[in-house]
Amino acid sequence: MKDARIIFVLGGPGSGKGTQCERIVEKYGFTHLSSGDLLRDEVASGSERGKKLTAIMEKGELVPLETVLELLRDAMVKKASTSKGFLIDGYPRELEQGTKFEKDVGKVECVLYFEVADETMTKRLLKRAETSGRVDDNEETIKKRLKTFHNLTRPVIDHYDKQSKVHK
After folding, report:
1. What is the pLDDT of residues 61-81, one digit of tens each?
2. Cα-only R_g, the chain
3. Which of 17, 32, 54, 83 is the most exposed place for a label (fewest CB within 10 A)?
4. Which of 149, 116, 105, 94 is nearest to 20 (CA)?
């Protein structure tokens, strides 16, 4: 993965990361990887690792950093020969994840940061809730998700901004 183009895509819940990633994939041929999707797919596969993840998530515990990194690395290796680059969506959520990723997987070219007002993200998520069926698309949970995003992800943005790698 040394020569792979790797871009972290960050922004709060409802900031438009997924939508913009779809457009970048379509126009530039990048591979879009979401750690959340990878975790859900692994659980759905019924694999041994998926069963362990189910047990962790049912307890409400966080999936270990190494497991998420392993899923990302495996997905990247699978697509390496056909991809023009990787968009890592919603990752890293905290600084340790980013530094460990760069040490164990590959260097990050840049960070695309979608800076969107909390009010806008809340409106978008409440609108999405009308059709999504997602349990986390409700006002109380949205407030918690936004607070968590700001508290954990701000240091990630600051870290990469010091390296002139953040594009808002």
Report:
1. 778 889 999 999 999 999 999
2. 16
3. 54
4. 116
